[in-house]
Amino acid sequence: MQKRIIAFVAAIALLVTCFAGCSGNHEGNAPNAAETTTAKKTDDRTFKLSYTQADSLDPFKAATQNNQILADLVFESLFDLTEGYETTTNIATGYAFADSRTLRVDLNPQLKFSNGEKITTEDVLYSTKAAMKSDAYGNSLEPVSYAEASGNSVIFHLKYADPYAVNLLTYPIASTKDDEDGFPVGSGRYVYKNSDDGVVLRAVKNDEFDPYITTIHLVNIAAADSIDNAVNIGNISYAFRDLSADISKRLSCAKKTVSMNNLIYLGINSYSGITSDAKIRRAISLAVDRTVLAESAYSGYAVPAQSPFNPDFKSIENIRLFETKADTGAAKQTVNQSGYGSDKLKLRLLVNLNENRGIAANLIKTQLEAVGFSVTVEKVNYTEYMRRIENTEFDLYIGEIKLGDDMNLYPFFDSSGAARYGFDDKKLQSDDLYTKYLEGEEELGKFILAFNEEMPYIPLIYKKGMICYSKAMNGDMQGYYGNYFSNIDSWNFNTDDETE
Question: Using an 8 Å Cβ cutoff, are 403 and 309 in contact?
Answer without folding.
Answer: no
